[in-house]
Amino acid sequence: MDNWVIALIKVVFIWTWTLLIATLMTWVERRGSAMMQDRLGPNRAGPFGLFQPLADGIKLFTKEDIIPEKAHKILFSLGPILFALPAFSAYAVIPFGDKLVVNGKEIILQVADVNVGFLYVVALGAMAVYGIVLGGWGSNNKYSILGGLRSTAQLISYEVPFGLSLLAVVLVYGTFSLREISLAQQGTFLGFLPNWGIFKQPLGFILFIVTAYAEANRVPFDLPEAESEIVAGYHTEYGSMRLGLYLFGEYVNMYTLAALMVTLYFGAWHLPYIDMSKFLGPVSYGIASFLVFFLKTAFFLWLFVWVRWTVPRFRYDQVMGLGWKALIPLALVNLFITALCIQLTV
Amino acid sequence: MAKPVVKKEYTFLERIYLWEIVKGLKLTFKHFTFNFKESLKKGPHTVPTCWQYPEDRRPIAPVFRGAHMLCLDDEGRELCVGCGMCARACPAKCITVKRGKPAEGEEGKYAGKTMSTEFTIDMLRCIFCGFCEEACPKGAIQLGQEYELAEYTMDACIYDKERLLANFQKAKAEGKLKPPKKPVPVAEGDKKAAAKKAAQKPAGKEATKSKKATSKPQAEEKKASESKGEET
Ligand code: SF4
Ligand code: SF4
Questions:
Q1: For chain A, what percentages of helix, strand and coil (3-state, to nearest 5) are there?
Q2: Alpha-carbon distance A110 to nearest alpha carbon in chain B (angstroms)
Q3: Is the pTM of this model over 0.80?
Q4: Which of A105, A152, A283, B94 is placed for a possible disulfide with B122 were both Cys, Cβ 3.0 to 4.6 Å?
Q5: From residue A195, how far is each of A32, A165, A192, A277, A280 by CA, in Å?
Q6: Which of A36, A40, A307 sits opposite B31 (nearest CB)?
Q7: C-alpha radius of gyration, chain B, whole number
Q8: Residues of A with CB below 8 A from B36's CB?
Q9: Domain that holds residue A135
Q10: Is residue A165 part of a domain?
Q11: Residues A161-219 pLDDT 10s
Q12: B97 lines ligand 2 (CB under 6 A)
């Protein structure tokens, strides 16, 4: 019984937390981009314009829900749901802290410590593309279908290096469980470096971050929605909360990917050289680990925004070239070297 | 002449993108930190490149052409003599002037012997070219610095004489009157002729001239406003 209640609390907590962060990210994105472009951004609703996402949400909810006459009704309504659902459920297996000890009961700060958590995240990430393709197909609009097609073509060129770079991490830690990977990153490595994934997999991290941007459909790989080329891509025909789900799903995806980066490559909740559990009480340690984890994630979220407003979009064929001619060979080399090192050291 | 495009070989660092992206990130970060620091300052005008309009207003040049006003002279007398030169000059045909004589005992209110009994400007048609200001022999009509001229009804956009005079009072109170015009420099040879012209400039001559001027544009103006009425 107790376990059920705890699990429920964790689910509700992480759900609301992700939604809150995604909401906040829309604000950060707009104000941050404004600051980079010497503008001000939304600053009227509430202090510093912080209530702007709220106003946008209300607006999206109260707008008329239009389904184009010639659109495929079922696919059209299925698209956003298929996109947002994997995005919302992917966080379930990613930790958001170490553990909290309350009344002698140990609560792991992770909704589900699945032993194939890794595959779950990758599978759900690939699922989200269905939402884009079906939405684009169902809209019966040339720009939408182009966006959907681009999304599929992009998927096959980045999903392979994405998987290969993750495989190298699995080789290093010898487990698929994200919690075990996080736990293994404590202490130091070679005597002076923090025992983080990035120092063991520098090339793997670069490959991962590049493909993660493609996975999240963010600039420089935002080909499916490329405003300047194909209007708005797959969501051209969408309005009201259906559009909201697409936009929101994107931010939730970003959050999941940022958390994944922290878990795999940046030592999850560990601080370099300092072991927090040694001098913090059980409850405060849980909270501190959560905060450390979140701050690291926040940096990568910010990096998503930062990169978006810095670099231009890749051309369609350039993405293909980058994926097939650079990322996949590099990922294979990385995998090979990792395997070799492990074989030699073990 | 078109510049020949020289295609440059990219170096290895440029071809792997990453270093160039880092350079770009550095640039955007510089802008971000600068604007972030500026935006923490007090006051509405924070980010230097950004004017937040209703709170921040850009300074306006003294020669800005905004809403019209009918000027009074230093003794508070109306300068307009109702000659209709402005109506004639107006390319949008939006000024209506009727000339009349001041009523008994009210001569002190007007600078000239005649005055305008009616003076309206249709601001919906005005293009703010400033020709009326240039045409006026008395410097009576001027374009001020007001530029927030939106109204809820079309009728409210047709300014009558009271409103134009009030505009002047307001501008005077706010110290937004135009600086006196600088004399136009005259070339050596023309100077004599100019002086001669200035000497024989009796008011009567002008009045006769303007009589002819007013009658026609007024008729036209009436027609124009009537046809406009039908349209709306
Ligand atoms: S500014 Fe130009 S258009 Fe407007 S009233 Fe004067 S002459 Fe006419
Ligand atoms: S030209 Fe000047 S004096 Fe003549 S009617 Fe117009 S404003 Fe009055």
A1: 70, 5, 25
A2: 33
A3: no
A4: B94
A5: 32, 18, 9, 16, 21
A6: A36
A7: 27
A8: 35
A9: 68-345
A10: yes
A11: 888 888 888 888 888 888 888 888 877 776 677 778 778 888 888 888 888 888 888 87
A12: yes
